[in-house]
Design brief:
The complex is a heterodimer of chains A (317) and B (100). Chain A is mostly helical and 317 residues long. Chain A contains 15 helices and no strands. Chain B has a single domain, classed as Alpha-Beta Plaits. Classes of the chains: A mainly alpha (317), B alpha+beta (100). The interface between A and B is medium-sized, with 18 and 14 residues.
Chain lengths: 317, 100
């Protein structure tokens, strides 16, 4: 665990957090933040695509099914807990469960980096699982909000387009396709841009995430102890569930760990955009605070190494 | 030489950008200007420093009748749930027939 804190990427996150808390005038321009998001998503997709082009099918299909089931299950489990124990209203509970179901791309990138830097094997198709887990989760959350709702709703086609063509899904799929189809002999210069500097870019991104998180931290107390407890215990339980499902689907320790991290992470790119459209009456400050102020820092600092431990233990059973 | 028209200004969450543009087209109001904005209001600081915190300023020059239609629509659809303010002022334009 302590070793994880000294990973330069995590230290950069701490640096951003510190800058925000101490009110430094450090600010990452919005355009750079957007560029970094695009870079990270494309790089993950590309890498997955290249590996997929010379991989065997193996447990791909079962893992995809497992991730879809998991994606649909997470909001269904989160919703009644948020509603009954958390006493949140229907819209807030649905929006929150969508955020917990959907995936954080940076947490995913940190988990991949965790395995790569330790030379641990994982299945090449894991970027696909990002999409197959996220899309059902968001759709189920929208359905939960609309169930029995009498509010005037925006057309489902428009929402579907928003979910399926959201930046993260589109870039990951696009990257996968380019990586898969692109001639390997011509990949050299692309790899130089997308693979070699990846960790450095991730570090820069986490500096920004530290700043963003620090601005959310002051809101955490507003929503009480329940959200704090839920925001840490729920991801851990979902990670345990995901490890078992990963094992059942025939995935390796590394692969199950990635699935666990996907299940445990909360979205702050796709979900806020789609939830704001689909459930406008839900409070955005509530879900952004839980995703960015609680789940994200917890996962980056403690969650990722913990989920790896859980995956190892589950595979020993 | 100058014709009197209304300048409608909507300052709101950036996420409404595409939706508002679609609405304007549906209402057959063509012509608008959008720029990025930042500020603070009853729904907190909208610093524009990252995507979910982005604000836009939408301007439309049109007739009073059109302005009322736009305001009524925005009031009914978005006031309740979104961070936004709207206001209107009088402007003088040349080529008055360019604006509905």
């Amino acid at each position: 665990m302590a070793e994880n804190f000294l990973d330069p990427v995590i230290l950069f996150f701490g640096l951003g957090l510190l800058a925000g808390i101490l009110k430094s005038d450090l600010r990452i321009p919005e355009q750079l933040y957007e560029t970094l998001t695009i870079y990270i998503l494309l790089a993950i997709g590309l890498k997955g695509g290249i590996k997929l082009s010379h991989a065997t099918v193996g447990s791909t299909l079962t893992s995809i099914v497992a991730s879809m089931v998991l994606g649909a299950m997470i909001p269904l489990i989160a919703y009644p807990i948020l509603r009954r124990l958390g006493k949140f209203n229907r819209s807030d509970s649905a929006a929150l469960s969508g955020h917990f179901g959907a995936v954080s791309s940076v947490t995913f990138a940190v988990a991949l980096d965790y395995l790569i830097s330790r030379g641990i094997y994982f299945e090449e198709f894991v970027p696909v699982l990002y999409i197959t887990l996220e899309v059902p989760a968001i759709l189920v959350a929208i359905a939960l909000a609309r169930f029995k709702s009498e509010k005037k709703n925006i057309p489902i086609q428009k929402l579907m387009r928003e979910v399926l063509l959201s930046k993260s899904v589109f870039l990951l799929l696009g990257g996968l396709l380019v990586g898969y189809l692109g001639l390997s002999s011509k990949m050299g210069p692309i790899e130089m841009v997308f693979f070699d500097p990846f960790k450095g870019v991730l570090a820069l991104f986490l500096l920004e995430m530290g700043l963003v998180t620090s601005r959310r931290l002051k809101d955490v107390h507003k929503y009480g102890i329940f959200l704090l407890v839920f925001g840490t215990c729920f991801p851990i339980s979902m990670a345990v569930l995901a490890c078992f499902m990963g094992k059942l689907a025939g995935m390796s320790v590394g692969g199950s760990f990635i699935l666990a991290t996907l299940a445990a992470s909360a979205s702050y790119i796709t979900a806020p955009v789609t939830m704001r459209m689909a459930i406008p009456e839900a409070n955005p400050s509530l879900y952004l605070t839980s995703s960015l102020g609680i789940v994200f820092p917890f996962n980056i600092m403690l969650g990722v190494p913990l989920y790896y431990k859980i995956s190892t233990l589950v595979h020993l059973i | 030489m100058f014709a009197k028209k209304k300048l409608v200004v909507v300052i709101c969450e950036g996420q409404l950008e595409n939706t508002l543009i679609d609405d304007l087209h549906e209402m057959k109001v063509y012509g608008y200007t959008i720029c990025e904005a930042k500020g603070e209001g009853s729904r907190g600081v909208r610093a524009g420093d990252w995507e979910q915190n982005r604000n836009i300023r939408l301007e439309i020059v049109c007739s009073e009748k059109e302005a009322e239609r736009v305001f009524t629509h925005i009031k009914n659809e978005y006031f309740e749930n979104y961070a936004m303010i709207t206001y209107m002022s009088e402007v003088e334009v040349i080529r008055g027939d360019k604006f509905v």
